[in-house]
């Protein structure tokens, strides 16, 4: 299987090359040359465990990796989840199900992709002997998930910039209390925008980037999307047979990575009715699916911060399919959007998507209502999926984070204390962080001093 760029100006690459590069050289995103048809496999896959299903699914995509090595990466990744089913499907009502995606090490769904990506990086490093220094900026969840995907990995160091004092105390603990020597949380003076700007400048220095083998961690790596397809399959197998083909998956959405994975599984032959794009008050995608107009807004901080986005970085992959894989058209759309912050799709077809948006008041009200009706605690991101549900159809709401990650909102909405032993344990550990100015020179100097080098790897 080869991978092509949505913008059509990069040569086709292997799975490993697409994983290593992240972004395609022409600025586009990688996608498989052709989507495999999974329908002939469904029967055989039905009884597989979560890890077995992931390995079987990935074999269709990672055709340049040895099947045994792939399986080891997968087993190592999902062995660290704290539920034997990895992604348990719970039934709340006659037609209402919730898919719990918060049993990984950082208690949010990003662990599904980043645990696996961490193991794939390590494997790649062992094969090529090239050390990897990973650099990213985070406002919370992605950084924590990336850190936990890479902690303790040989030949990989990770540097994560975050705005000091502006991530939640629990998120900071998740990043800074790992006790791992290869993790460097860099607490930036300033806002998340300052951190991102410093990140961008550091990456734009191509010499520096080359010399240090610098790699990005972000939400656009193709392997992340493939990893996220699996839990849609897994959930589908666990639905009553008579509901499978009419189910709508309801997906709390920010960068469109999670819901895109489900939609791609449908395009590969998983027979489901469709997907609901559930946004918070940052509703660019809701407005798009209602009108066909893709228009940038201002980011308004919300109770569901991991969905506070202005531009959905994975949306370009949807556009590529929506214009029948016409890369020239994708380039035109992305150029116009970049220049004007606006694009109108003519003859717009929402395909199998529906959408909703939920503001902070409704988030709190929904958390309270779901707790009263079902005795079940949901986090503020998941709450966006529970508002406005169509009760006449079978819905699977994806629970993207554990409620204990947002204790204040849960307490205000329900009077209940949301707890998790994983988070409680963090509170007793030492914080290790590196305060630094949001400045390219300072960051580069720090990375130079702490980068993993070939020499060290031979010695270690
Ligand atoms: C990242 C995140 C989301 C949004 O996922 P996208 O793939 O960006 O749409 C939703 N909920 C939580 C808890 C997240 O961490």
Secondary structure blueprint with pairings:
Blueprint: E1 3-5, H1 15-21, E2 30-32, H2 42-45, H3 50-59, H4 67-78, E3 89-91, E4 96-100, H5 110-128, E5 132-137, H6 141-150, E6 156-163, H7 169-176, E7 183-188, H8 192-204, H9 206-211, E8 214-216, H10 222-238, E9 248-252, H11 257-267, E10 274-279, H12 284-291, E11 293-295, H13 315-322, H14 327-340, E12 342-344, E13 353-357, H15 360-374, H16 380-386, E14 395-399, H17 407-414, H18 421-426, E15 434-436, H19 440-450, H20 454-459
Parallel strand pairs: 4-14, 5-6, 5-8, 6-7, 7-15, 9-10, 9-14, 10-13
Antiparallel strand pairs: 1-2, 3-4, 11-12
Bound molecules: pyridoxal-5'-phosphate.
Task: Please describe what this structure looks like.
This protein has 460 residues and is of the alpha/beta class. It has helices at 15-21, 42-45, 50-59, 67-78, 110-128, 141-150, 169-176, 192-204, 206-211, 222-238, 257-267, 284-291, 315-322, 327-340, 360-374, 380-386, 407-414, 421-426, 440-450, 454-459; strands at residues 3-5, 30-32, 89-91, 96-100, 132-137, 156-163, 183-188, 214-216, 248-252, 274-279, 293-295, 342-344, 353-357, 395-399, 434-436. It contains 20 helices and 15 strands. Strand 6, helix 7 and strand 7 form a beta-alpha-beta unit. The longest helix has 19 residues, at 110-128. The protein starts with a strand and ends with a helix. The site of pyridoxal-5'-phosphate has 16 residues, from helix 11. Residues 108, 110, 141, 219, 252-258, 306-307, 381, 400-401 line the site of pyridoxal-5'-phosphate (PLP).
């Amino acid at each position: 299987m080869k991978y092509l760029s949505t913008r059509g100006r990069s040569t086709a690459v292997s799975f490993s090359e697409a994983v290593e590069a992240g972004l395609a050289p022409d600025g586009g995103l990688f996608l498989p040359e052709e989507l495999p048809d999974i329908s002939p496999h469904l029967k055989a896959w039905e009884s597989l465990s979560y890890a077995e299903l992931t390995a079987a699914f990935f074999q269709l995509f990672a055709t340049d990796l040895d099947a045994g090595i792939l399986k080891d990466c997968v087993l190592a990744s999902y062995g660290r989840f704290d539920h034997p089913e990895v992604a348990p499907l719970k039934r709340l009502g006659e037609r209402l199900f919730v898919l719990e995606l918060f049993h990984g090490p950082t208690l949010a769904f990003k662990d599904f992709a980043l645990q696996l990506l961490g193991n794939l990086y390590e494997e790649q490093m062992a094969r090529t002997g090239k050390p990897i220094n990973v650099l990213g900026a985070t406002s919370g969840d992605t950084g924590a998930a990336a850190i936990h995907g890479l902690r303790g990995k040989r030949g990989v160091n990770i540097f994560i910039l975050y705005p000091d004092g502006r991530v939640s105390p629990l998120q900071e603990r998740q990043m800074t209390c790992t006790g791992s020597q290869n993790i460097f949380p860099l607490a930036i003076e300033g806002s998340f925008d300052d951190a991102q700007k410093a990140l961008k400048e550091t990456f734009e220095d191509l010499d520096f980037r080359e010399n240090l083998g610098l790699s990005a961690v972000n939400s656009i790596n193709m392997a992340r999307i493939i990893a996220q397809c699996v839990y849609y399959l897994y959930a589908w197998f666990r639905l009553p047979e008579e509901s499978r083909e009419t189910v709508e998956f309801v997906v709390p959405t920010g960068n469109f990575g999670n819901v895109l994975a489900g939609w791609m599984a449908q395009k590969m032959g998983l027979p489901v009715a469709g997907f609901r794009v559930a946004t918070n008050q940052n509703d660019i995608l809701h407005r798009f699916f209602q009108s066909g107009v893709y228009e940038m807004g201002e980011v308004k901080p919300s109770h569901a911060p991991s969905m506070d986005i202005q531009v959905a970085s994975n949306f370009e992959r949807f556009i590529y399919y929506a214009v029948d894989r016409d890369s020239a058209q994708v380039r035109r759309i992305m150029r116009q959007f970049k220049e004007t912050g606006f694009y109108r799709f003519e003859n717009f077809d929402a395909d199998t998507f529906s959408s909703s948006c939920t503001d902070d008041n409704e988030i709190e009200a929904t958390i309270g209502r779901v707790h009263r009706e079902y005795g079940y605690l949901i986090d503020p991101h998941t709450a966006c999926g529970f508002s406005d549900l169509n009760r006449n159809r079978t819905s699977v709401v994806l629970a993207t984070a554990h409620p204990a990650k947002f204790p204040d909102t849960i307490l205000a909405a329900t009077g209940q204390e949301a707890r998790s032993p994983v988070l409680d344990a963090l509170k007793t550990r030492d914080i290790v962080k590196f305060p630094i100015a949001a400045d390219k020179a300072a960051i580069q100097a720090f990375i130079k001093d702490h980068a993993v080098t070939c020499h060290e790897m031979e010695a270690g």
